[in-house]
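Each field is set out as follows.
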Amino acid sequence: MKRTAIVSIMLGLLLALPVQAQNLVGNSGLEDLSPAFWTPVNGTFGTEVDVTSDTAKYGFNSFTITKTATAAEVGWLSDNNANKYWNHAEAGTYAVSAWIKTTGVNTGPTTDAEKIGVVFTFNTAAGVELSTVTVWADQTNTSTSWTQVTDVAILSEAPGEVFVKMIMGKDATGTVNFDGIGCGTDPWSMGVFNSSAENGAGWLDWYAGKGNYTRVTSAEAHTGTYSVEMVQPDTMSTESELVYYSIPYPVEAGEWYRIGVWIKTVGVIDSADYEADYATKKNVNERVNLCYMFHDDLDIETGWTTVGDRFVYVDQTVADSGWTHYVVADKAPEGATGINIRARFNHFTTGAAYFDDFSVVKMVTPVVAIEERGGIAQYPSAYRLSQNYPNPFNPQTVIQYSCPEIGWVRLDVYNILGQKVTTLVDGNHSVGTYNVIWNSADDRGQRVASGVYIYTLRTNDTRIAKKMLLIR
């Protein structure tokens, strides 16, 4: 039997395993295009504030703010960048900058309320202001092409908070694009995450940008409208690796997780030796892969210490392949606190590939295998769905259910209108009693609103439903 056939059989068996809880990966299908690490200020994404591919200084996208009338200020506010992941902001001189393009804006501002700019705020960890510097757009004319504005901030102590705000004052009007937001020291101590609006909620990327690229596209999709696209032409003089990766999500050391993604390849470099393979630590050139790594930081929001890459190589015995689900099981190592998952081209990989519907799901094990009746151990005699606890709850609750026989079980959550919110369990189960946790998020990883929700247990011939109350 060929190795590819063995892998296919093992993958099929793995897919049949029961799983616990829901997908840990937020925005797993790339459908949320709102920019990672940024939040609208007095605006709604898609209207007053947006991300556009119509114009950009770098990459494919830029931030957009549009105001048609004088009202409250509108803009984009960054997350705290000071010690985010690998950042470690220090005392020193910070060069701050932004590229700005204006279209039909008000001219000759006489007050800050009429101005357009980017505000850089440096605070202590306790929120005490150390310095604030603003770089202003050129509003001499109603419209300008891409122009860089710069300044410096001098800090006598390391900031615990660094926020960036792109802003149109309350009396400013028109359309403004922002790109290439810069804030850093020499030697390097920090940068601004997603400074060019290239990545949707929950995602980051890396590529050399010399003809190769990775981005979210609507050209292909396994489900929904979007997927990650990776392209590296074989005409490049120096091929590099390409990575589109998630933020880290919490995991529990010693627990097993099912890790997967759907992949389609188009014209990738192929070889009879490039068969699909299970997770390995070996970094092989010319290979398309699902990559993941466990983190062991005490706080996964302010560190980036990992225990090494693991690669799940796709089938490259042919150059083109349809959508294929690659999934493996792995145990979170001792000390693990988080995991991130990646679409990846290793060095010298050429062609194009699409990635969609990423998943990291904690695998179920029975928490109560038997019941005690009169001192005699007995298995569950019927399908049961218990009341969630706690109830009401915020932000998570535990749902327990029992299976009297081996078979398929599905557990869904619906809102009061009967619209499906998320699927918590969908797979074959052994006899036993199981616990599953719902963290009040939908299938896209977005937190849902307060209210009554209905959870249902379905098998081939059974359906049980109960209500639960989420209070924010």
